[in-house]
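Hi all, long-time lurker, first post. I run a small reading group and we've been trying to get comfortable going from sequence to structure in the token notation. Rather than ask abstract questions, I figured I'd post a concrete chain and ask someone more experienced to write out its structure so we can walk through it together at our next meeting. Sequence below, copied exactly:
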Amino acid sequence: MDKELKLFRLTNAAGAYLELLNLGATLVSWYVPDKEGKLENIILNYPELEDYSTNPYYLGSTIGRFANRITKAQFALDGKTYHLDKNDGENCNHGGFNGFHNRIFDYKVQDHQIVFSYESPDGEGGFPGNLRLTVTYTFSDDNELSIEYKVLSDKDTVFNPTNHAYFNLSGKGGTICNHELQVYAKDYLVTDAAWLPTGEIRPICRDRACPVSTTVDFTKLQGFNTFFIGQSKHLATLSYKDRRLDVYSSMPGIQVYTGDYLAEPFEPCAGIALEAQGYPDAVNHNHFPSCRIEAGEEKVYAIQYRILFINS
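-- Answer (accepted) --
Happy to help. Here is the structure in token form:
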């Protein structure tokens, strides 16, 4: 690394706190109290900060320039084809080898906020445009974490950010298979064996809360790795005993990944990623909502995670 790793802490009036890393503008930990007031971390993290220099699971990272997969690591924009990093077989995933998760961000500390910034040069990862990104983390006294992405490019380009934290509300390790998940959606994107959207949009079968364990086949390690199309800004609710996490976003849907392929130092399904984002591979499906940004057009995207304590 050509810059020093910096760890920051945001603490609210209740004593809950979260930690952030300038590498990848990453959410490292989120400590909330239990019934006895003991603080417990509800997201997965590595034992050492240096582990984030590789971070094959994208733990807590800011993802970009384009979250999720792009078929054959290429797309066309205004008649020109752009070729991207092939870091997922023949496809591009989470911005490729040169994604934001591998970049050191500049930072500014404000009241209850950390503002990270990064200048992505034209052609980085194969994407067009010199792109300026700020990622602002805000932590409230009501235990709400807000993430704002503000972006500006000097060329027409595509952009699709998210955060890749893995949640485990137990705060004690183990798997998330005793959690309950509610996704507020009626439709999802069908994918092929490589998790690439086929273009088909299909209705889901249930619209009520269900234990995550009912979706995971441990013999085949096939749980959720699915994009659900949101009906409102409230995209999902994850619950475990007296803790509840609500996910809201200005973005049109949420990728739910049950962590089936997590491995050392973790175990499969040790955490669940709830990734608010635009449609995966939207650059190659004209009937998906566009992720295009016009040159000189500043765009803002937002995610909110709200922790509630039930019967407390």
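A couple of things your group might point at:
The chain is about 0% helix and 45% strand.
The CA atoms of residues 66 and 159 lie 5 Å apart.
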